[in-house]
Design a protein that fits this description.
single chain, 82% helix, 4 helices
Length: 110
């Protein structure tokens, strides 16, 4: 993998949890449950289009990385660095790994 591909892949992996942490909670606070649905559509849809549609994230070989892995790892690191509840973050990271594995398995069946 070339250096530009590594940089764009890392940037693509950073953008998703960054936007989740920055925007999702505020949309839910301001607009309630409809804000959560809107955040899901805007944040997940936009970052998926950037990473996979535009090609910001480069996947080479047979390896794949689901967006749940990026979200789980990124949000755990953000929680740990900001002093939030780390054991809760570990639980969320575990479920993100399970969800990402399940999502990748289902996609491999296609």
């Amino acid at each position: 993998m070339t250096l530009p591909a590594i940089i764009t892949t890392m940037a693509g992996g950073f953008i998703f949890p960054f936007l989740l942490r920055l925007i999702w909670g505020k949309m839910c606070e301001d607009w309630g449950s409809i804000g959560g649905y809107m955040a899901a559509g805007f944040i997940v849809g936009t970052t998926w289009c950037l990473n996979h549609g535009v090609g910001l994230m480069v996947q080479s070989g047979g390896a794949w990385v689901d967006m749940a892995f990026a979200a789980g790892a990124g949000l755990f690191v953000a929680s740990a660095l900001s002093g939030d509840n780390v054991p809760k973050g570990l639980t969320n990271l575990l479920f993100a790994i399970i969800g990402g594995t399940l999502g990748g398995f289902i996609l491999s069946l296609l």
